[in-house]
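Note to self: keep these together.
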Amino acid sequence: MAKKTTPKDNTENIDSSSKIEAIKNLIFGENIEQYDSEFTTLKKDLEKKKKDLQAYIDEVREELMQSIDSLSTDVNIRITDLEDSFNARAEALSEEKVDRKELGKLLISLGEKISS
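Structure:
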């Protein structure tokens, strides 16, 4: 049930838009062009600031990613150094550890020397 538009409806639309223009001119008068100009200037300024902020955000994001990569590399190096240090100490302890059989033989030998 679509409504059919007639030439009369179009005329009414034109009349109502011209009435709106007339009311706008009455309210704002000659200042409307100045307002339009100021709004256009503000819009351009906002667009420029938006682009500047987006560029700054991209720059900060890039710096953060580089810092994270650097930190990740540093952490990996430190972990590798700690693993190497741990392995070296573990080997040193293994070398210093006395074998149980050897300790048993030494204690038997010591016991025999004490008893004789």
